[in-house]
Amino acid sequence: MVAALGLSACGGGGDDSGGSDTLRVTLVNHVWTENIKKALPEFEQQSGLKVEVTQLGEDQLSDQYNVKLNAGSSDIDVMMYRPLQEGKLFAKNGYLTDLTDRAKEDSAFDFADFQGPPVQATTYEEKLVGIPIITEQEVLYYRKDLLQKSGFSAPPKTLDELKTMAAKVEADNPGTAGFVARTGKAAAVTQFSSFLFSFGGDFVDGSGKASVNTEQAKQAYAYYGGLLREHGPENISTDMSWSEAMAIFTQGKAAFYTEANSLYKNATDPAKSKVSDSVGFAPFPAGPAGSKPYNIPSWALGVNEGSENQANAWKFIQWAAGKDQTLAQQKGGVPGARTSVWANPEGIATYPQDLAEAIKVSTENGVGHDRPLVVKVAESREIVGQPIVDAITGKDVAGSAATANEAFQKLLDDEK
Amino acid sequence: MASLASPQPSGELTGWTRWANNNRKWLFAAPAMTFVGALIIFPLAWTIYLSLTDAEGSVRAESEFIGFANYLEVLSDTDRFWPAVLRTVGFTGVALLFEIVLGMAVALLLWRPFRGERWVRVAILLPLVATPVAVGMMWRLIFDPNIGMANQILGWVGIGPQPWLAGQHSALPTTIFIDIWQWTPMVVLILLAGLTSLSNEPDEAARVDGASAWQRFRHVTLPLLMPTVIVAILLRGIDALKTFDILYATKGRGGGSFHEVETLNVYAYGLSFDYNEYGISSTVLIIFFLIIIGSMWALTSRRKKGAQ
């Protein structure tokens, strides 16, 4: 490890070696961050740098970047950011430093080891602007005990089966919902995406046109909204993010739940979950187009273009996204973006076995995005998310999808 | 000679000291003026400038001066802007009405000393000292439609579950309720201060004349207290117009899936921080600023009329 650091330090820096010994790193509240904070003394000792961590919630982090990067501030060196949410905007505005040479010339870092789709998401106009550190796939969370009680021996393989089984379990257990998932307009989009892909649709078609009013998309909206309306929690709302949906599931009030695998510890940790000993995981159920969950990098590390400490910032990334740390992180429950770590039996040893298998399926069939790939992501999510909430509240899905498609096309045209 | 060299106030003033002496009113005001300039005038001027450009994506990116095009766009937007204006006015009006009426009732109760008065005062002031964001999160938990306490309690008395914050039509009234819960104590404080400073004589005179409690309140206490009531309305009104934290903490960005609690403040915030539409966002903020200035002016001019 020390040797690797020494080697790469020679290869990496040079252009701005006069940086400060204090490195300012901004991170989000995440298991990854908790793990990395525990390992930081090791890095500080090896590199002789002092790392100052600023840790914020997801929304606060985003606001902080908006203010500081807009002002051209130099007091962020390393930034943890969401490639699919802010990546394009930040890269377009020139907030992210080009890391291509640093990453590719560094043999110890072994950039070729990173999975393709995540790297694609951190690349902008052929420049590498971030290093993916956390990946996510959508899986099915379910209650083994409830399924057994209703006479099912295995989790559903298709979306049709999911609906039938949800209905049966719900009927057998009054007060328990058959299915729960996110219902907030923008929050639901990412998890809805796997349903959309599995019905054969996408947000944008092959020719770059908005396609949320295709037959497949309308079916997906109707299915997702219908499942929640008919078999969701009794007092279904349209503002649930993962925390509310997860709470319903972990309080034992739902049988099935589709969500990102990276949140699995919330369900299996006895301190957080009443159903920790009966949670099962399965690959995303297949729709008419097969099982097509998303497989995305949810977080990456980038270097602020305004930072005066870029060489040291790269040293931190080298270490934090290096093979050793990625393996340690994955053992700590955070799915990483390195192929070697997934190939290493040690890398998946700490996962529940069924979850590891589900992830394997997802990485094979996965789609590299879970929201429209545009600059104005927040706005586009609100547009394509409207038919979801309309479907949940029982409104006209086809009409809503047509309206959304028109608005989304306008947004796409504006960005050209 | 030595004694002559002692300070001679006017004769020895030269150069800088003379200048400072002549301009002392400016000199002493300078720190405050710098402060106002840097923290109020500059941001305001910058916002006005931005509202006349098509700035988006990044404030540092090139933007074009487009005159009043943003204003035309915003003022003709019946999708998000006007509903937000209506919600802002509705939220403020209803919250203010309840807060003043309730605040007056509580202040009257607390006016005369009684046993355990101190405890009651502490209990009433508790909501006031909590952070609005924490208050919002707390009520969000209580009002959760599936696992929240509010519906459980309703269940015990045989009333079916209510959607509260989750409902498209019940969300705004629920946030108004939270605002009333948190801010009525402030109105109580202001009115109580006003009540305790009133002299007892007019009230006693009315009592001697045989006026009932309601008559004394209606024709003696209330008119005397009116200036204080207007102050309370003014302070709380401006605050309520600007409410952001409670709405953001309970319904998040965009004021919910159907923008059900999106007021002007929440809308402008979303335009800036979610959509990165700095030009449009600045326009909304400037219009909002004018609305606040306008309502303040209307209230204060009424107050002057009332005083005459």
From TrEMBL, chain B:
Major localisation: membrane
Transmembrane segments: 26-49, 89-110, 122-142, 180-199, 220-238, 278-299
Subcellular location field: Cell membrane
CDD domains: TM_PBP2 (cd06261)
The keyword Cell membrane is assigned to this record: yes
Keyword list, A-Z: Cell membrane, Membrane, Transmembrane, Transmembrane helix, Transport
Similarity section: Belongs to the binding-protein-dependent transport system permease family.
Protein name per the record: Sugar ABC transporter permease
Organism of derivation: Plantactinospora veratri
Classification lineage: Bacteria, Bacillati, Actinomycetota, Actinomycetes, Micromonosporales
